[in-house]
Every structure is written in structure tokens, then in C-alpha cells.
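Service request form, structural biology core

Requester: graduate student, group of Dr. S.
Request type: structure prediction, single chain
Budget code: on file
Notes: please return the result as C-alpha cells.

Sequence provided:
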Amino acid sequence: ARLALLGLLAASPAAALRRSDCSAIDVGDADADLVIENPIPVEPGCQCLEYTEVYENHGARCGSANEGHGWETCELFYRRMEDNLCWNIPGDAEQGQWCYVSQDCQALNGGAPLRKASVAWKRCSPRKDRMSRAHTVKSLTAWAKKHDMDLGMAFSMAYQALEGITWEQLAPYFPDGTAMVDDLRAVPDQWKSKIEGIVHSGPNTIIRSSTGRAPEAIIDKHDLYVTAENTEWTRGKRKNEVAAHPFQMTEVTLVKTGA
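Core staff response, request fulfilled:
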């Protein structure tokens, strides 16, 4: 169902901007390994744990904390993650991020121990923990490639979402062949201040589609990226075949740069 839906969306008007003469971004020398700037010490036992280690050795199951539920979330993302990055807490009013830690951690920041598991989850802190939202689009793409993760899911799990606007609504104001600064002038007033604020001040933000599937857009400083299903990989494949290499499922293209 996911693949059929992606195919329909890829043919939609909002996807037209993704096409033209653009090609998927080259991550080049982008660093997949996120380093904390000006770090401060983490409390004893409160270092984030690798997700695969938690599931294999500490009795936790995917969905025990803030992963959400469903085959895609677990099998294409968390259960394959040999890393300890912090990811978005679903539905969190403060738009925080989380990770698993030892059950001995006393600084959970609103997190909690897990029942029937030897771990807890904590709310992450930018100068103590590796926040996935600190990644640029290029470096998060490099990370997803390194770990063979679904790129569309990584973007949605890492970046804050723009509320009250969908990419289908905004895409017509960002046509091919125009400058970003001109596009911003054309955006309707009820959305303009939000978009301009993100472009000029951040943080990196994903503009979701109405279905939560590609095509979607990401604003990374003054750059605009758009995702699309990689039909060369997904077409004709069964779910388990696609899941063998999730990174191949989604492409991301730089369609606008400069404001």
C-alpha cells in the first residue's frame, strides 16, 4: 500500500517541482557522524544507547517508548539503527527529542523507566546528546546512506514539522526557474511570516504532505529540498524486497537555493 500510494503522489502536481532538470543530491564529503558543538558532560548512566543494542540486550521492544508503532517505523527505522541519535517525540508540544538510556540514569528530563526492560528513555539536551535535528539535509542523507535507512522517514523523525500547511498547498508558489526570494514574496500572507522565519532563522523544517508520504519539502536555511519515491528501486518489488535496502526508497533533490 505504501508503494502504491507513493506512486500516486509522485504523479501529483506538487511533485512536478521535484522533476525538471534536477537530480538527487550528491552527499559528497558531508559528514554522516554528528558531533556535538561545545558539549557539556552527561550525567552518569545517561549516555544515549544504540537502539539495536537496547532491543537485543535490554528487553525493550520497538514501541515500548516513543518509537510509535507499525511495521515501517520499526522494521525500516528503529530496529535497524546501530546508532544513538535522538529523534522526535511524537505529538510532543515542546517538539523535543528522545533516546534510550540505562535504567540507572537519574536525569530523564521528563522521561521514564520501561517496565520489563533494563532501560529508560530520556528527553535529550542539545549540548549533551546527539540531536538528529542538528543534521543538515546533506549530512542526514549521508547518515541514512551509511546506515541504509529510509531517508523520508529520517527527515520526518529528525526535523520539526510546519504546522497548518501542507506541501500540496505551498508547492505552486515555488515553481521551477524562479529565485527563492521571489517565491517568498508570492506566498500568501497567512503563511508568509512562518516560511520567512524558518528560511532566515531556522530550524530545519519539513513541510509534510497531506498523507505524510513523498513528495514532501525540507527548508534547510536558505535551501529548499523535495523528496520523491525512487521508482527505479520500488517499482514491482514486494514489501520485504524493498525493505532489504530502505535507503533506496526515497530520493531528495535540491530545488531552490539562496534567499
